[in-house]
Design goal:
Layout: H1 45-61, H2 65-78, H3 83-95, H4 99-112, H5 117-129, H6 133-145, H7 152-165, H8 169-182, H9 187-199, H10 203-214, H11 221-234, H12 237-250, H13 255-261
Helix pairs in contact: 1-2, 1-3, 2-3, 3-4, 3-5, 4-5, 5-6, 5-7, 6-7, 7-8, 7-9, 8-9, 9-10, 10-11, 11-12, 11-13
Length: 266
Amino acid sequence: MNRLLPLLLVAGALVLAGCASNKPSTPPTAPPPDRTPVKVQEATPQERAVIRTDLAAGYYERGQMDVALEELGAAKTLDPSYPKLYNIYGLVYAMLGERDKAEENFRQAVALAPNDPEIRANWGAYLCATGRAREALPEFDQAIRDPLFKKQEIALINAGKCSASLGQTQVAEDYLRRALTASPGNPVAAYNLALLAYRQSRVGEARAWMRPVMQQANPPPEALYLGACIERKQGDREAERSYESQLRNRWPESPEAKALAGGTCE
């Protein structure tokens, strides 16, 4: 959370001298300065819980799970009814592989804020990642229906991937196309559309979807691998070598580089 520090502006008195006179003038006496201590409004426990939760989210994003847990513990002490702290707890425990704790906290977050789209989207992502795709899709749909949800493309991409895992190719494609409408040129949505097209042998379409993927400054190894496999199926050896070269030079130790070196395409 960005916090603005209040500025205390001190206005100095400017004394203007009057016209000169034969009588000595007595300078006006300035009032004594007010030395009453300025009262700084203290944040409420609820506000401090929000701050600590935001800090925890930042540490989670940086991979500092131990510090994130410390901040969440402090936030919970301040306001145990704050839903978003349980959302971040769920994310942290999921990353640590502590599935029971992750699920417990996600469920608590949903119970406290059933209409929060971010909580619903994260709960859906967790369900999908743990093999419960059918349970996950309604969570994504509820998040997506909220017009104020600012991360709709993420929920749509996850819904698309989740649908694909169920073999619902057309449903998956619809979600991913909606993600591109919400976030034009989104490389993650485009990659997943390219992957769907490639698996259905729609090679020309897969090549087209790879364009926004390759406009990233540093495409991830799975994208370079898919690009090489698409070009191999297309029969364009020069384009395939270009993908292979980038994968080998940028991600030499990746599983994708090793698979491609062994001649393997999924």
